[in-house]
Amino acid sequence: MTDTPGRLLTLLSLLQTPREWPGSELAERLQVSPRTIRRDIDRLRELGYPVEATRGPEGGYRLTAGAAMPPLLLDDEEAVAIAVGLRTAAGHAVEGIEEASVRALAKLIQVLPSRLRHRVAALNAATVPVLPGDGPRIDPEDLAVIAAAVAARERLRFDYRAGDGAETRRQVEPHRLVSYGRRWYLVCYDPDRTDWRIFRVDRLSHPQRTGLRFDPRELPAGDAAAYVADKLAGRTTVHRAVVTLHAPYERLAARLGTAAGQLEEIDEHRCRLVSRADSVEWLGARLAMVGCEFEVHEPPELVAYLHELAGRVGRSVEAARGR
Amino acid sequence: MTDTPGRLLTLLSLLQTPREWPGSELAERLQVSPRTIRRDIDRLRELGYPVEATRGPEGGYRLTAGAAMPPLLLDDEEAVAIAVGLRTAAGHAVEGIEEASVRALAKLIQVLPSRLRHRVAALNAATVPVLPGDGPRIDPEDLAVIAAAVAARERLRFDYRAGDGAETRRQVEPHRLVSYGRRWYLVCYDPDRTDWRIFRVDRLSHPQRTGLRFDPRELPAGDAAAYVADKLAGRTTVHRAVVTLHAPYERLAARLGTAAGQLEEIDEHRCRLVSRADSVEWLGARLAMVGCEFEVHEPPELVAYLHELAGRVGRSVEAARGR
DNA sequence: TCGATTGCGGCCAGGATCCGACCTATACGG
DNA sequence: CCGTATAGGTCGGATCCTGGCCGCAATCGA
């Protein structure tokens, strides 16, 4: 069996392990002569993979960071870990990379062996929703299907539940998937209505690729993200919370991160936080988690929610405290 | 330039795109004849990558799910998304895959171009801690460094802050990284003390690979995870919460997931939940998030914490409610 | 300072392999 | 029914790959 390309792939995967491989060990492992290993290393370098070598005893080869990403060779467990990690990130765990997460997830799912797919699904079922009151959940798997259809330029079929509750079945030309204000939107051209439409992904179910290719038309507005922002301006309710937190600035900055909102120092014991989100539950949970005394100034909905939360939590311990 | 193995790698990356590639297009792109493309596809199939083909017009090749993971070819943004996703997962977002996440992260970081590394760091700084009171945070990057040292069989140097506050500088032979009870532990042999030691990763700072290789010795206890569990038995305080939740079983099951603990139905309006965690803050936050009325029976620490929480949240809205 | 170990690259010869060209079969859509 | 796509066979010639040999350079430890 003299399978050169296969050997190169194996070599690449071995070198990806964070350790050094002496040429002799690689030769034995791949059942070829050390000379061939040297030649293979040369080949990899010519292909642009930065293989570094240290000479002398205890020396060896390893793959280092270069200009471009080498192909990642993963074992089963690592692939599952990445899939699960992406599924959480594709929600709104980290702002700014939602779209890339979904693309990567689509790529991964396409080639993920089915036995691993089951493990991913099982692990995901066991995952705790991080925040309450987050509105209808979307399945990251659905997002991946949509992203794949966008990339493949295939028509997409799905059921849509409009704002007034009417259910319709649609078949559209998906153009782009946009994450905006903690929600996902699909920008697409609807051939039945002969016009561009924006669908909320959380109101869409059973997306299916049809296999029907289409020639992508040009979006009138140029950029899809701007298009969504423009169309939705004023239609989404955003809650703006203004809070005084009784804790030093450094502690809060470390605690909240930069995504929480604008944090300003009032004096050495207090800070003012302005935070925006689309649900008061989310705002409330964040505040309750900070762990210091605080005062809420706005909005009234948040005050009402926190009042209710305090009552609920207070009642939960009354019996145990013997009152 | 007739570089067969390189062409195969390129082909693999092209086929990973979620779209179909007609043989003629591939031939033109790779500067070979269509016949060679067919042969290459054959080769890939022999290597175990399931290339599927649809015949007829609009047909083409694409890579589907098979028995093994093919090498993943990622663009910059996708690589960053995966790194960020893994960093969160390597915390304790999902139980059961922490170790695999760290391994995958170590592998990724090793080959991640430096310009992307900066983006990952920047995004991570903006990440919001998901849960409060989680004790000292661990930098997933540190975990990756440790995992790399374990895989490379290199000695590891770090500063350690013992339970009594004493700071020491250590150099050890890292053996394995174990995740146990929502904490990370490093099992290693300490040559200075000539004995096996377990270090808590959250108390360890500035881990550095030394480049000094060592021959791994055999752990007396066989399995590292069992060793940690054995040594730590009784030393970690585990809080066991018993709670009655006033909501139907189905709603709670969907809300809590399976990892929350044992959930039993009392009647159609109430359930009993037994949940374990190492911090009452964590338990308390989870309960407050459920969004229904509940009663806490045990433990007293949790009752005290929730009482404090209710007071804090209640006080935060007093001014706003004009009382 | 010296020796051992490891990577680096050139050379050569034999043999396996790859490529392109040509052909036919088959499946799918219009 | 035709055009286009994949699928696969065969063949000859060019190419490339492998393994063995060599001397050289770098590095580490004794």
Structure, explained:
Chains A, B: Residues 4-70 form the HTH deoR-type domain. Chains A, B: It comes from Kitasatospora paracochleata. Chains A, B: GO terms for molecular function: DNA binding. The structure is a homodimer of 323-residue chains. Chain A has helices at 4-16, 23-30, 34-46, 76-93, 98-111, 114-125, 140-152, 224-232, 249-256, 280-290, 300-318, and strands at 51-54, 60-63, 154-161, 167-180, 183-190, 195-200, 204-213, 239-245, 262-267, 270-277, 294-298. With 323 residues, the first copy, chain A, is an alpha+beta fold. Chain A has three domains: 4-63, Winged helix-like DNA-binding domain superfamily/Winged helix DNA-binding domain (Arc Repressor Mutant, subunit A, Orthogonal Bundle), CATH 1.10.10.10; 78-232, no CATH class; 239-313, Alpha-Beta Plaits (2-Layer Sandwich), CATH 3.30.70. Chain A has a five-stranded antiparallel sheet with strand order 6-5-4-3-7. The first copy, chain A, has a four-stranded antiparallel sheet with strand order 9-10-8-11. In chain A, helix 2 crosses helix 3 (34-46). The longest helix of chain A has 19 residues, at 300-318. Mean pLDDT of chain A is 80; it is low at 129-135. The interface between A and B is large, with 116 and 114 residues. Chain A binds a DNA duplex (30 and 30 nucleotides) through helix 3.
Keywords:
DNA-binding, homodimer, 323 residues, 5-stranded antiparallel sheet, Arc Repressor Mutant, subunit A, 25% strand, Alpha-Beta Plaits, 43% helix, 3 domains, alpha+beta
Walk me through the topology.
2 copies of one chain form a homodimer.
Chain A: H1 4-16, H2 23-30, H3 34-46, E1 51-54, E2 60-63, H4 76-93, H5 98-111, H6 114-125, H7 140-152, E3 154-161, E4 167-180, E5 183-190, E6 195-200, E7 204-213, H8 224-232, E8 239-245, H9 249-256, E9 262-267, E10 270-277, H10 280-290, E11 294-298, H11 300-318
Antiparallel strand pairs in A: 1-2, 3-4, 3-7, 4-5, 5-6, 8-10, 8-11, 9-10
The first copy, chain A, binds a DNA duplex (30 and 30 nucleotides) through helix 3.
